């Protein structure tokens, strides 16, 4: 069942979104060659704790996972697409880092992800990949207008990504979000225009395209049971915002 939120509830999710945006910014500010995933995780955890919020990922244990997730953030580096586990491994110059973070504040959740490059000499193809992922996300957000359908959102994302030659991992889609992190409906990264759930004011969704540089849609699971990697070893970017569908149009909730 799709639960619609009142304007008051959306305002509270906006506060949770502010915490998530600040946690992601803190993690990003720490990222540099020689710094570790655990340090980025700690930076995000400190912001969430200081805000009186609770992290949504740590301890999350879906049926398909072998262990509860250990991090406050997912940290996916280079060929890792999503669900990467923060470790003590040091980041290298040129690494492509995706950080995903969720938090709940006063009973309401928000979820967002950013991708960025570490160091001073990024590969221009990685710079383009991240810009194109952000552009695909922006297209998806713009399509989340009241009266549109979910297929319009997926189509907007995939059309932008496919036109630039990227792969998409359609199995790891976005989701409704509210009191809990994952609610109905699914928000696929591909879709047919005019098909799917009608987007009504009060619907809040996490939109999260994942673009693969090598053009493949195929992925594999790492031995840790969590990390999802590209099958061809090429790099991936993952960006996400929590977005409210309102009478006035889409409103991004995960911004500072
Ligand atoms: Mg997320
Ligand atoms: Mg999400």
How does this model look, in words?
Helix content is 28%, strand content 26%. With 256 residues, it is α+β, with helices and mostly antiparallel strands. The protein has a single domain (7-252), classed as Creatinase/methionine aminopeptidase superfamily (Creatine Amidinohydrolase, Alpha-Beta Complex), CATH 3.90.230.10. It has a 5-stranded antiparallel β-sheet, with helices on both faces. Strands 1, 2, 4 and 5 form a 4-stranded antiparallel β-sheet that branches. A 3-stranded antiparallel β-sheet has the order 3-12-11, with no helix packed on it. β7 (174-176) and β8 (183-187) form a beta hairpin. The longest helix has 24 residues, at 7-30. Bound molecules: magnesium ion (2 copies). Residues 111, 174-175, 206, 208, 240 line the site of one magnesium ion.
Corresponding CATH superfamily? Creatinase/methionine aminopeptidase superfamily
Main sheet characteristics: 5 strands, antiparallel
Distance between termini? 30 Å
Structural class: alpha+beta
**What is the helix fraction of residues, given as a range?**
25-40%
CATH class, named Alpha Beta
Hetero groups in this structure are: magnesium ion
The CATH architecture can be named as: Alpha-Beta Complex
Number of helices: 4
Report low-confidence residues grouped into runs of 5 or more.
Answer: none
Q: What's the alpha carbon Rg, rounded to whole Å?
A: 17 Å
Please provide the count of β strands: 15
């Amino acid at each position: 069942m799709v639960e619609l939120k009142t304007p008051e509830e959306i305002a509270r999710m906006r506060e949770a979104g502010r915490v998530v945006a600040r946690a992601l910014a803190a993690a990003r500010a720490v990222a540099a060659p020689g710094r570790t995933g655990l340090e980025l995780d700690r930076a995000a955890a400190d912001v969430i704790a200081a805000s009186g919020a609770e992290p949504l990922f740590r301890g999350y244990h879906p049926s398909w996972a072998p262990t509860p997730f250990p991090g406050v953030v997912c940290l996916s580096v280079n060929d890792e697409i999503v669900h990467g586990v923060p470790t003590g491994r040091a980041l290298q110059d040129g690494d492509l880092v995706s950080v995903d973070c969720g938090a709940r504040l006063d009973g309401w959740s928000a979820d967002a992800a950013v991708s960025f490059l570490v160091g001073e000499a990024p590969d221009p193809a990685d710079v383009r990949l991240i810009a194109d992922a952000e552009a695909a996300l922006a297209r998806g957000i713009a399509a989340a207008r009241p009266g549109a359908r979910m297929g319009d959102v997926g189509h907007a994302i995939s059309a932008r990504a496919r036109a630039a030659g990227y792969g998409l991992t359609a199995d790891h889609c976005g989701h409704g979000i509210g009191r809990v992190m994952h609610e109905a409906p699914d928000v696929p990264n591909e879709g047919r225009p005019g098909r799917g759930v009608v987007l009504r004011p009060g619907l809040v969704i996490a939109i999260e395209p994942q673009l693969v540089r090598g053009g493949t849609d195929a992925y594999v699971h790492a031995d840790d049971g969590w990390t999802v990697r590209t099958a061809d070893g090429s790099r991936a970017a993952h960006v996400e915002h929590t977005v409210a569908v309102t009478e006035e149009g889409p409103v991004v909730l995960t911004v500072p």
